[in-house]
Amino acid sequence: MRTAIVTGASRGIGRACAITLAAQRFAVVVNYAGSADEAAQVVREIESAGGKALAVQADVASATAVARLFDGAEAAFDGIDVVVSSAGVMTTGPIAEVGDDEFDRVIGINLRGTFNVFRETARRVRDNGRLIGLSSTTLALNAPGYGLYNATKGAVESIVRVAAKELGGRGITVNAVAPGPVETGLFLDGKSEADVQRMAGMAPQKRLGRPDDIAGVVAFLASPQAAWVNGQVVRANGGIA
Question: pTM of this prediction?
Fold first, then answer.
């Protein structure tokens, strides 16, 4: 049985990725930062369907914590084959109004956290493994208020392209998925109903994405069928951009 680590897996897209990969016979390490009860529920759901899962707490902004996360995965399942770097936060507002604390928090989780996970994956993932990051379609839209968030996601895409070349000699592929608006707390929090409906209307299908829409793309990139997809950003946004 192959093993997958999914960061930020207690809710939203990360949760959907963990459940989808478990259905494809991965043993899944469900990472969470503070949502222990929600992570435990994900583990129970996977186990009730006949899968294997383990919840491990780690703040991805801490390199030491990420190393412990990988230690836990190796101890429980004897190796790591797939890593999905899904943990992230979103904040919006004009660049002129971004405070230092907010800047440090978003950079710490979205950029430093991604780098910590990528670095540990490069050191530990087995040959022919898969590393998948999460970007965002906000990069293609350049909407006002997304300056800080987009800065972190632009960095994610750059790291993906470099890591793909560094790890390709071992048969490891590195890609990113860039969702559009998805029905998750990360997207919905702080938005009015009018804002949500306006964004749903941007897609030709006139709806928001669902976590399972993104998890399906991630599962493909984690599969043997995606062995020739490397260094790419898949924009899973329903046609918004």
Answer: 0.94
- Per DSSP (E only), the strands in 58-125 are 82-85
Instruction: Fold for 2-234, please state it.
Output: Rossmann fold (3.40.50)
Task: Give the full edge-to-edge strand order of the sheet including 130-134.
Answer: 53-57, 26-32, 2-6, 82-85, 130-134, 173-177, 233-234
CA distance 137 to 151: 13
Which position among 149, 217, 219, 221 bears the catalytic label? 149
Q: Do residues 42 and 10 lie in contact, with contact meaning Cβ atoms separated by under 8 Å?
A: yes
Q: Is 149 a catalytic residue?
A: yes
How far apart are alpha carbons 25 and 238 in whole angstroms? 28
Strand, coil or helix: what is 107? helix
In whole angstroms, give the CA distance from residue 46 to residue 12. Answer: 15
Name residue, tokens 């997958």.
4
* Eight-class DSSP state of 225: G
Cβ atoms of residues 241 and 235 within 8 Å: yes
**Beta bridge partners of residue 83, listed in sequence order:** 5, 131
pLDDT band at 241 (very low <50, low <70, confident <90, very high): confident
25-54: per-residue pLDDT in tens?
999 999 999 999 999 999 999 999 999 999
CB 216 within 8 A of CB 21: no
Each residue's pLDDT tens digit, 100-151: 999 999 999 999 999 999 999 999 999 999 999 999 999 999 999 999 999 9
Q: What is the pLDDT of residue 184?
A: 80
Helix H, strand E, coil C: the string for 164-192 is HHHHHHHCCEEEEECCCCECCHHHHCCCC
